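Obj.: predict assembly geometry.
Materials: sequence records (below).
Method: joint structure prediction, all chains together.
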Amino acid sequence: MNAPVTPEQQALLDRFVRDNKMFYAPDPAIMSNHKIEPRSEIEEKLLSGPVDPHKVNEVRGLVLAALDESHTMIEQMGAAPGAKWGDMTTAVFTASGDLTMIAPHGVGGFAAAVFYPIKFINKYWRNEPTVGVRDGDAFIHNDARYGGIHNTDQSTMMPIFWKGELVCWISATIHEGENGSTEPGGMPAAAESKYDEGLKMPPFRVVENFELKRDLVTFLQNSVRDPKLQLEDMKVRLHSCMRLRERIISLLEEHGEEALIVMLRKQLEDVVAEVRRRITELPDGITRMVSFADSTLREAALVKMNMALTVKGDTITVDMRGSSPELINRSINTNQASFKTMLYSSYMQNIWPDLPFTMAVFTPFDFIFDEKSLLNGSFDTPQAMSLIPLFKTMTIACIPMAKLIYGLPHRHTAIVAPQYDQPATLIYGGLTQHGEAVGNFCADINGMGQGGRSHLDGEHSVSPPFAAHCDLGEIELMEEDLPIVRLGAFTLSKDRAGFGKQRSGLGYEQIHTFRNSGLWGFMTGCSGSLYPSAMPLFGGYASPTYPLCKIKGVNVFDQLDRDPDGVEFDIVDLMNRQPIEGATYSTHPMGMTFELADPGELYMMCQGAGGGYGDVLQRDPERVMKDLDEDLISHATARDIYKVVYDEQNLIVDVAATAALRDSERNSRIARGVPYDEFVKTWTTPEPPQNLPFMGCWGEQDVVYGINVGKRVQMKGTALQSQFMLNPKDVEIASLKAELAALRAVPR
Amino acid sequence: MKVLITENLRIDLDSEQWECRACGKALRSARDNYKRGLLVHNRDPREIHKPLLDPTRYQLTYAPNPEWCRILEYYCPKCGTMIETEYLPPGHPPIRDIEFDIDALKAQWKDRAEITEPPVAPDPPRPRGHGGQPVARAATGDRR
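Observations (raw C-alpha cells):
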C-alpha cells in the first residue's frame, strides 16, 4: 500500500502538472459553465453597501453610448461583407469575463460567445509568465471550440486597466468569412475533420502597446485566401476597441472605478433576478419539441434535435438528450457552448427581447446533454457548418416557450411562430473582376421570413433569426466588388409560406450568376429540401421545402443579348417553362459543396418562410384577398387551403358561401379524423422506417439511432458513439457498379 | 376558473379538463395528454405544400417528401377546429408537448383574475439598426 501523499508532495505534484501542461485545450470547466461568476472580492464589497441607482444608470448610459460609437466605427470601416450588413458587435465584460452589455445594434450571439475565451485568458494566460495580460494588449480568437458560433467570426478582446488593476474587458467581433478553410468562405460543408476548417485560433495576444504585431498578422494573412481582408479588419477591430477603451477611461476619470464595477455587476444581478421572476410566472411543468435537419450537407439524413423544457419554480431545465449523435467526419456538429449561445439569441429575439443583452439571462437555466451528441460534440468533431443545428437552435424554443407563456396575464412580447431557420445564401469563392482572390458569403443570410404572430402576420424577409436588425446589404455595392450578378432579387416567393390564421412572412428568390472572372464558384449550406424547416404554431402549417435550382450549360448573357425581353427572372417560371435555349435544368438539395461554375450559369434558391400561426380556417377571408392582391398566394391556395369563396375578377368575398365551405371542411375533418388512441396504434412504429437515414431517438430518449459506416446502429443515449459517414462518391460508385453488374447479368 | 394554454386550448381548473376554446368541449383530463381527446389525420404534406415545379421533370419541387415527412392534423371532435399540427417522419411517436403540474397551476392562479382573451403584447423591438449614411447623417443633425 502506498504511503499517503503529504501536503508538500501534493503541492509539488500540482506545480509539476501546472508547469508541464502539454496542451491548453478548451477547458471543460469554462466551456460547460454559462452562468455568471460569483461576486469578486471588490464586487462583494461595493455591492453589499448602498448602491445609487441613478449613478448606475448614468454610467450605464455612458458605456452604452461608447458601445454604439465603437460599433458604428466597425460598420463604417469594416472590410468584411458581414460588417456592412451588421454581422458584428462590440461588448463590455466584467473583469471576471461575464458579458454585461453589447452595442445597441450588435449581434448579441457574438458577444455571448466571447466570454468563454476571455475566461480562458483570465484563467490560463494572465499568470502564465510567457503570456500575461497587460495594459495595451489585445487578444484574437476564432475557434468556436474555445467559445464562439463558428470559425468565420473573429474577435479582438482587450483588457482595460485602471490604476494598475484590471477593471473590465471589451471586445469587437465581426463575421469575417474567409478563414483558409478547405472551401472558400469559411463555412466548409466539405470539412471532414477539424483540420479542414482553416484558421483555428485559441485566444492569443496579437496586440502589444496598442499595436498589431506584424509578424503574427503576417502568419494569419498567410493562412487565408484574402490577406487584405485579414489585415484590414484586424485594424478595424483593434481601433474600435481602442475607441471604446478611450471612452471607458474617460468614464473612469470622471466617475471612478467603483462606479463602473458596480454598474457592470449590478446589470448582471438585476437581469438574473428579473429572469427568475419571469420564470416563476410560468406554469410548472414540461413542454416538448422536436426539430429535424434533413441533410449533413454531404448526404440526405434526418438529423433530430430533441428538446424538453422543464419549469420548476424559478428555474428552467433545457434537456436536449435524445438528439442525434455527433458525426465524426461531417461539419454540422456543434458544441454545447455554441448551442447555448444561439439558444440564448433566440430567447433575446423571440421570448424576452426587452431584456438587456447579457448572458446572465441564462443563469437561471440548467442544461442536460448526451455526451458526443451533435449538439454537444467532442473536441475532435468538425464544426465548420455548425449553422445547420445552430440556426434551428434559434427557433426551436419558440414553440415550447409559447405554450408556457400563452396564458400569462402579461406578455413581454408578442408570441411568434418560428422564423425560417436555415442559412439560405450562396457562399462564393474565386477571382474577382479586379483579380483579387476572395471567399465569403452573400447578405441574403439575413433575409428570413418571420413566423406568424399572435396578432399579425409575419413580416417578409425581415432579418436573420439571430439579430432583428441585420440588413441585406446593397446588391450594387456587392456587384462592384464581385463578379456576381443578381438577375432576380427580392421577389417574394409566391405560395411558399407558412399558412395559418396568421401566415408567416415570405422569403424571396435569389437568382445568381457571374461574369468577368475566369475562376469562380459557389456553394450552399442549407437543409430543408425534403423536410420543412420552420415549424408551425398552434395548428398552423410549416414553411415548405426549398430546392437549389440550376440552369447550366449556357451563358445567360448571350441569350439576353439576343432576346433581352424573352426571359422572366422568376424561378418557377424559368424551371417550368425552360425559356433559355440549350440549357440543362436541374434541382438539388440546398446543401452543395463548392463547385466551379461557368460564366452566365444560373444558381437559384429562396430565402425561406417562417411557420404559420393558428388554424387556416380562422384566417379572415379579406386578408386572404389581400394576399392575392399582393401576389403572395395563388387562387389555388385561397380556395384549397383557406377555403374562401370569392370572385376571381374583383376579389369580392362571398361571405355566406365561405362560411358554408369552411363549416363543410370542419365536418370533413371530423369525418376523416381518427381518435388519438386508435390512431397511434396503427401510426407508431417501433423504430424508424428502414429507408429513412434517421439520427436521434425515436421513442424513448435513451435509445438513439445513428448511421455508422453506412449501417443503422442503435445506442444508449448515455453511451453515444461518433458516427462515421461513408464518402458520398464511394456510395455513388458502389450504386453505379451494382447497376452495371445487374445490366451485365442480363443475357443479350 | 379557466386558464388559456394555447390559441385553441384552455384548462378548466375546477373540472380539471382540457377544453376546446372554439366550442368549449371538454376534451380530456388536464392531467392527461390533451391529444388523447382529439381526432388525428395523417396528411400527405404535398396536399398543403403543393409541388410548384413540374414533378414529371424534377424530384424536388418545393413540396416535402412524403416518405420523410407527414403532417398530423389534430381536430376538435365536436367543432373540427384544428387544435394543433405536428410534422413528423412516418411512424414517429407523437410528442406529448404539454405536461403541466395541475396542482401548481391551481396554486399559481389562486390569486390571479381569470383571462378570457389573451393580452396583445408589443412586437419584439426592432431597434434602428445598420443604417450606413442615413444614420451617419442623422447623427450630425442632418434630417434629410
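Conclusions so far: Strands of chain B lie at 2-4, 9-12, 17-20, 26-29, 39-43, 70-75, 82-88, 98-100.
To do: check interface contacts against the pulldown list.
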